[in-house]
Amino acid sequence: MRLSRYFLPVLKETPSEAQIVSHRLMLRAGMIRQQSAGIYSWLPLGLKVLKRVEQIVNEEQQRAGHIPLLMPTLQSADLWRESGRFDAYGEELLRMKDRHDRDMLYSPTAEELFTDVFRSYVKSYKDLPLTLYQIQWKFRDEIRPRFGVMRGREFLMKDGYNFDLTKQDALHAYNRHLVSYLRTYERMGLQAIPMRADSGPIGGDNTHEFLVLAETGESEVFYDSEITDLTFGDRQIDYDSVEQCQAVLEEFTSRYARTDETHDEAEFAKVPEERRRTARGIEVGQIFYFGTKYSDAMGATVQDREGNQVAVHMGSHGIGVSRLLGALIEANHDDNGIIWPEGVTPFHVGIVNLKQGDVQADAACQSLYDSFTALGLEPLYDDRKERAGGKFATMDLIGLPWRITVGPRGLKNGVVELTSRRTGASEELPPEQAVEKVAKIYAGL
Ligand code: ATP
Ligand code: MG
Fold first, then answer.
1. What's the CATH class of domain 3-337?
2. Looking at CB atoms within 10 Å, which of 5, 155, 206, 369 has the fewest?
């Protein structure tokens, strides 16, 4: 993309309404625009990152064997009356009437619809296990929407639902989700710690939340510092293997790590004092096993091996896709702006032309641009007739991990400058080598 032809409405001023850094930077970098409380337009740069996050979530869900589909956001109240949640959900559920005076709602989560689709088609244990998921907009009429996309009213969520014959199978689905979530967040360059949590209105007693540690997090968390040394890395897990998934779950959940809802001082005191940590965290996902709560209420049964009709065991699993952008920025920024991890960056590399209009500089930039494009990478080329300082400030603000600076002086010596956004370190090297180096970094992801 050429910046002169792009739509990147960056703000010079720091918006006063934004209280936390990720919200400020998303507004300043022209990623989002607030349309009303907790409701945002996604501008091109914001949409690009949202799509990258979404893609990682999709890939990891499908790697774990989960199947995507799409449910409507506006739903009839009927199914929600069957589960009892139309009345039980409270003020966060946006209820409305259509022209025929029928009760409708904007889905805050979708246990009912998935259970309904399941019961309509699946009749036999032979079709289990089954995990369906979607990445779809949700609406919750939060009393205090704030912090930008972190606590919106409309937000994008991956929500998945597993259907299993037995409790044991459903617990395997639970473990499998925990493993796939660890891998998902790590691919984005985020450490999200599974912590024992409270199930809230979804119900059930097995649940973990995934938290990204950040001062601006809304949850208070308590954990054993050893947990932050754990990484999932590039281990190959067979998601069908009960033992392998169980082993990962045990490794990542055996140390003390809880949110304030489940925190237990006496238990915490057993952690050696020098390893006890109290901090704040951003909840970026949650997994639940809730047994037959919805299948009982809604008659989601299958025939088992003996020919009996049995209610299926279920769980649900959510990732806050749009909230993740806020969490990513909270964890990756400096005074000059965002620092995107390579896994989610909106453009792979920025090209800054120090002397737009100079025949050689223009040609060198164009050649870099073509080389990256041919390699399947997306460069953002700042081809505007602007001063270098302004171009650097824009690149720093929007946070591309790599920048190549091209100017007549370097070109005389056959070199361009490659700069890391994260470390600030620069090196001069011939253009082909700069391309090779950047390409290698992305190939390793
Ligand atoms: P919270 O405790 O933050 O209100 P929740 O526990 O009610 O969230 P879940 O039902 O577990 O949320 O939804 C799954 C994920 O969706 C959460 O882990 C979170 O990342 C995201 N999410 C929930 N509410 C919002 C919101 N208002 N804005 C943005 N993301 C949200
Ligand atoms: Mg939650």
1. alpha beta
2. 5
